[in-house]
Structures are given as C-alpha cells and as structure tokens.
What we know:
The protein is of the alpha/beta class. The chain folds into two domains: 7-17 and 106-226, 3-Layer(aba) Sandwich (Rossmann fold); 19-100, Orthogonal Bundle (DNA polymerase, domain 1). It has helices spanning 19-33, 40-59, 65-79, 86-100, 110-117, 131-140, 153-156, 163-173, 187-195, and strands at 7-10, 122-127, 149-152, 180-184, 200-204, 216-218. A six-stranded parallel beta sheet has the order 3-2-1-4-5-6, with helices on both faces. Strand 2, helix 6 (131-140) and strand 3 form a beta-alpha-beta unit. Helix 1 (19-33) packs across helix 4 and helix 2 (40-59) packs antiparallel against helix 3. The longest helix has 20 residues, at 40-59. InterPro entries: HAD-like_sf (IPR036412), HAD-SF_hydro_IA (IPR006439), HAD-SF_hydro_IA_YjjG/PynA (IPR011951), HAD_2 (IPR041492), HAD_sf (IPR023214), PGP-like_dom2 (IPR023198), Pyrimidine_5'-ntase_YjjG (IPR052550). This is Noncanonical pyrimidine nucleotidase, YjjG family.
Amino acid sequence: MNNNIEHIFFDLDHTLWDFDKNSALTFDFIFKKNNLQLNLPEFLSVYEPLNLQYWKLYREEKVSKEHLRFYRLKDTFDTLNIELEAEVINKLSEDYIENLSDQNHLFDGTFEILDYLKPKYQLHIITNGFEEVQHHKMKKSNIFHFFETITNSEMVGVKKPNPKIFNHALDLANATTKNSIMIGDNYEADILGALNIGLDAICFNYHNETIAPDIKIINHLLDLKKYL
C-alpha cells in the first residue's frame, strides 16, 4: 500500500450513504402521500435493477437526467402491469427527488471510519449524483463537515468513469494520483475509472459481487483501517 496517501476520495451513494434503504423509505412515503396502494417489496424488486440499468446508461451519456427520472418509474409500473398517467409518474418522480435527501441512513461504520481518517487525511467526495440533492444528503446525515471538497458530475459535465471528473476532483483538492486513493462500490465507475488514470482504488464490495483478484476489496467500511 502506498504510504504517501494524503487525500481520500469517497463515492457517496452506496458507499457512505445507504441509498437502497433511504430510497425504500422514500418510496414508502411518497406512495402513501399520493394514495397509491402498492406492494413495496414487489415494486422495489423490479425498480432497483431497472434503476441500476438506467444509471449505467446515464453514466454512458445515453440518456438524460429527465429520461432517467421518468422511465425508471414508468418501466417499473409497466412491468408490474400498473397503469398510471404520465402526469402521475412525473409527480412521483418529483416527490421522490424532493424527499430522498431527507433520509439520513448511512452504512454501518461510516462515522467511526470518518472520525478515524479525518485527522490523518484530507477527505473528498466524487459523485455522479444530482447536484441539487447531494449536499442536502450529506448535511442531513451529518457528514458534510468531514469533507474538504465535493465534486459532482453536473459541475464537470461528465460522469464517472470519465477521466475528466477524476482529474477535476484532483485539481479541486490540489491533489495528485500519487498521493490519493479512491473508495467506492461501483466497479466500473469508481474502481476502473480511478485506476484508468493511475489513481489507486479500494472497492467497497458490500454487495458481494465477483471482483477481479488484483483489486483491493473491503466488505465493511471499518476494514479500511487495514489499508489506511
């Protein structure tokens, strides 16, 4: 492990901020708010993989933010044979974005590992999440103060794994690939994106996916103590 590390770049969603749990709570809230009687576990079982597919298309610049927000819901309802007007789907999409960042559940060990790392390193965020919600998520979950810089895809104009977002984040932090490391859950966006510009990386593999054997892996955030 490189002993010259000064800067640690974290992904936010699915790495520190427990996106799946927060998302489920938000859907439960907005369905009740809009008087929709849906089986939440059944809905999520269809929505979650579709959402991941749309985020991959979004990262690859194949769909817009607006397309992602609408069609991840429409495709889910279509699959479940639930007929809803476009106006209702748009309302649900807006309600979801408006309320998602009010949730504040973090992965187990988040505060402990940030408290451990903060005195030793400069901490930063690189996220593909939407600019209008990411800051609010961090403030609501009380982790905003840990980070020196926050780089999101909308301010750069590209998304991870595009090299430009990593280079922008490094420049913003006055850091280099030699004295920095990236930590994230997404193998393609976070890990390969970082490695492709010569930035070391650790994969937070909480979902227990099969990862290439030469990649540094942790299954719990506190396992970072083995490396940092």
